[in-house]
Amino acid sequence: MERKLLEIKGLKTYFYTDEGVVAAVDGVDISIRAGETVGIVGESGSGKSVTSLTAMRLTPGKVVEGSITFDGKEILGLSEEEMREIRGNEMAMIFQEPMTSLNPVFTIGDQIGEAVRIHRNYSKAQARARAVEMLKLVGIPRAEQIVDEYPHRLSGGMRQRVMIAMAMACDPKLLIADEPTTALDVTIQAQILDLMSELKASKGTAILLITHDLGVVAEMCDRVVVMYDGRVVEESDVVTLFTHPRHPYTQGLMKSMPTLDSEEKRLYSIKGSVPAQGSLRIGCSFAPRCEHAMAICREQSPPLQEIELGHFSRCFLHASAEGRTGHEPAVH
Amino acid sequence: MSDTDVSVQVATQAAEVSYQRRSPWASMLRRFRKNKRALVGFWMVVVFVGIAVFAQAIAPYDPIEQNMDVILQPPSADHLFGTDEYGRDILSRIIYGSQISLMIGIVGVLISVVIGVGLGTVSGYFGGRTDMFIMRIMDIFMAFPSFLLALAIVSVLGPGMVNVMIAIGIFSVPTFARISRSAVISVKNKEFIEAAKSMGASHARVIFKHVLPNSVAPIIVLSTMRIATAILTASGLSFLGMGAQPPTPEWGAMLSTGREYLRTAPHVSTIPGLAIMFMVLAFNMLGDGLRDALDPKMKL
Amino acid sequence: MLGYIAKRLLQMIPTLIGVSILCFIIIHSVPGDPANLIAGVDATAEEIQIVKERLGLDRPLYEQYGSYVMGLLQGDMGKSLRSDRPVAEELLTRFPSTIMLTMLSVVVMVLVGLFAGIMSAIRPNSMRDNATMMVSLFGISMPVFWSGIMLILVFSYYLQWLPSGGSTQLKHYILPAIALGLSSSAVLARLTRSSILEVIHQDFIRTARAKGVREKLIIYKHTLKNALIPIITIVGLEFGHLLGGAVLTETVFSMNGIGRYIIQSIQFRDYPAIQGSILFVAAIFVIVNLVVDLCYGAVDPRIRYD
To answer: Which GO MF terms are attached to this record (chain A) (predicted)?
Structure first.
């Protein structure tokens, strides 16, 4: 087995607000091998973005417990200076909003070249050349001109390409992509995803892809982690997850996906909504919305179990006689 | 219409009213109470108003009566803030002076609120040429450095308290006109305004019932801050001899005469300056706090 | 760019016309007849008539305004009643002193205000931030004539480091510029702080952090350049306050500038001088606003001049 590039263990990130403590991430384990693409899926408020920001040590919240090792180093123990050397260099990140994620008062070239100037001590000219090279790599036409333009002259899709160029400038080992396509038009989404796949293939970069879109997961990922209310509820390889989802929440997500051959007129939707963060967790936090909820679900919190090799789920259904009796979900 | 329908309607209306009235003001009050600086400002204003109202009872001496036996004395037990060049008790003059500063500040700002909000509302509500015309004139007023505008007005009207109030009133008009104009424009095209218009409400009714209440918050905040500016400007005019005339115990004028004795009796000009500063500070702190409580994002 | 400047200069004309009309109206709305005031309370009817004719006050208002504007276009602001010399000439001899004072005050304002604002914004709600913001509240509330007097008291009388008045040498300008600049620097500090805090929560700052940019550069490069737009605006507006404040400061420090000239003219009821100098200062302020507009373009690439 390949060594793990990023390993998050028992991570708890809490926010201390005036209204009380919010456990945004509450005991999460995720690992990524070199060159692998792992998706984190969940609704907004499930803690997936906070998890990824914590991996970069950019979260405004406080890490209460857990460990994050990156490339063999425990990064939660690094000094800010050491962490800064990893950011944008070995571990880079792109964000959801390409319209607001670029600094409006600096040129595209300045912003792409900044990473290599910081991490590789490139001269101004070298950084500019690198920026042009990166712009070409991400498929931006007229790269020599665009490099001196300001972000407001570019469309959203182009800006997201610039963001990718910026993140890839130092050839990072891990690229964290937080909802990279959510804010874009459907056709542009596909182009950006294709670009990421190409880059992954040519550079061997591992990708941690945060999304709420199962279609994106199906297209991009090797393995998937499903998060709900600050915890991992299911994890498996992508094929298994789509063919045999085991957690009722994942099953709900699958059912709510539109399919072409669907005869139903209305899309399925999971009742209720993600519980307000900070509310006390007694029992399984999905129980109030779960069709299969049992008495025990409201009293105890289910553990994350390996139900098959490499397939984990956090549900009491699997504990009771393999849980397959009456509840085997019919997908498709 | 049956009885139940009516009662349901009344109940929903009542619920709407209480939702609109109570909840934002209650949360505002809560935020205001949590803001230490605002509370200090509030109580300082209360103290100054108290001093002004009860000046006669508090002041140990007559503010105008001269006593040539005790001229230019430094602070002592008899005269806490010392005496001035005519042997008048500075503490008593400061106490009476608070009446003048407060009055000029508040009346001056009231004048500008009435004129400014009036012009701004008309401008924003009717738009078009009216708007163009009014705002152009406001722009011209804004082209003058504000202190200079006040000075020019007083120089023509002649020195005196009433004229200072008028000058102060005029120089804040453009600020109020702008802020109320933008507040009006931001609500003008909202659905509830359209609804009121379509139900045949007159312009006056729409303005007073629906548009103005929505610009109350920024106007309150701006008024508080402008009182601070007004007091500062008025004291500057008096310092130049354009404001209250002797022997009126006006702080700026006291400071001005005290300059002559700066080497021998610095307290004569120091103390009135402190008084001005603390009163202005009180209104600035209160204004800051109100802004943070009403709408932290307000650009004032 | 040149086209834009030309366009803006053209746009200044209506404002300047408005300003001149307003000045004219203010001066001519003197209760009673200006000629009475000028000639003095105990003047005879003939004396008043002579004054009227001399100043053209017997002609209709629009004619008076017309000849005034014609004069202005030729650089003629009329003659001072006090000295009988051309107002324009008197203003020009005093202009360098006032512009020197205002410029030095701008330097004080920008240095102190930017520094204090940045220091506050780096650690919001810290002791340092609260203390700085409290001090700047005091600064805003302080009458500029009083702070000038206090500076004289300390630095001229007690320490005897600097002169208390005059306007011939650079050392004469130090205390007045500090007095005048500090009150505006308090305004600037507050605005700098709030603009930085507004920018620092934007997405692109997170992007910069994710790139591994050091915190110092995040503030001084990525944040500050974005925060400069409101900062430039306030510097322009404060310039107006400084021009107004110069009236008080020049009086306190006995400086021979336009500000004190205005006061002396008012005391003497020298209406041509009052009118001319107020118009002059307003024109400077209008030009400063134009310069501010041009500065936006240097900072914000989204603004285009065409």
So the answer is: ATP binding; ATP hydrolysis activity
Record the tokens describing residue A269, joined without a space.
């939707």
Please tell me if residue C304 touches chain A, with a CB cutoff of 8 Å.
no
Quick check: A152 contacting C, CB < 8 Å? yes
| Percentage, residues of chain B above pLDDT 90 | 42
Q: Which residues of C touch B266 (CB under 8 A)?
A: 153
Closest CA to B41 of B297, B296, B295, B290: B290
CB-CB: which of C29, C143, C247 is closest to B148?
Answer: C247
Decide which of 1.10.8.60, 1.10.3720.10, 3.90.1150.10, 1.10.3430.10 is the CATH code for B34-62+85-294: 1.10.3720.10
Tokens of B234: 């008025």
Instruction: Mark yes or no for CB contact B143/C145 under 8 Å.
Output: no
Q: Which of residues 219-238 of C touch A (CB under 8 A)?
A: 222, 225-226
Quick check: A105 and C301 CB within 8 A? yes
Give the nearest chain C residue to B139 (CA atoms).
C15
Give the span between the Cα atoms of B226 and C80, in whole angstroms: 35
Give me the residue spans of the domains in chain B. Answer: 34-62+85-294
Portion 251-280 of C in contact with A at CB < 8 A? none
CATH code linked to domain C95-299 = 1.10.3720.10
- Chain A residues touching residue C198 (CB < 8 angstroms): none
ipTM: 0.87
Task: Specify the pLDDT at position B276.
Answer: 96
Cross-chain residue pair C206–A89, CB shorter than 8 Å:
no
Burial of A192 (0-12, 13-18, 19+ CB in 10 A): buried
Flag whether pLDDT at B8 surpasses 70: no
Enumerate the residues of chain C whose CB falls inside 8 A of the CB of residue A164: none
What would the pLDDT profile of C178-198 be if each residue is shown by its tens digit? 999 998 999 999 999 999 998
- B152-199: pLDDT as tens digits: 888 888 888 899 999 999 989 999 999 999 888 888 777 777 777 777
CA distance A109 to A133: 10
In chain C, which among 118-177 make CB contacts under 8 A with chain B? 134, 137-138, 140-147, 149-150, 152-153, 157
State which residue of chain A sits closest to C204, comparing Cα positions. A101
Asked if residue A288 is part of any domain, the answer here is no
- pLDDT above 70 coverage of chain B, percent: 90
Positive or negative: CA dihedral A308, A312, A313, A319:
positive
Task: Tell me what pLDDT residue B5 has.
Answer: 43
Count of pairs with CB atoms under 8 A, one residue in B, one in C: 130
Whether A148 maps to a domain, the answer reads yes
How many H helices and E strands in chain B? 13, 0
pLDDT at residue number A275: 66
- Does residue A160 register a pLDDT over 70? yes
Dihedral sign for Cα atoms in the order A215, A217, A220, A221? negative
Most confident listed range (A57-66, C86-95, C272-281): C86-95
Looking at the partner chain, which of A100, A118, A152 has a beta carbon nearest the beta carbon of C212?
Answer: A118
- First-residue to last-residue Cα distance in chain A: 33
C245 vs B269: CB contact, 8 Å cut-off?
A: no
Å between C216 CA and nearest CA of chain A: 12
The size of the A-C interface in CB pairs under 8 A is 72
Domain of residue A118 covers: 99-169
pLDDT tens-place string over residues B90-144: 999 999 999 999 999 999 999 999 999 999 999 988 888 999 999 988 988 888 8
Contacts of residue C50, Cβ cutoff 8 Å, sequence gap at least 6:
C39
Give pLDDT tens digits for A223-239: 999 998 888 999 999 99
In total, how many domains does chain A have?
1
Find how far residue A28's CA is from the centre of its chain: 13
- Is any Cβ of chain B less than 8 angstroms from the Cβ of C278? yes
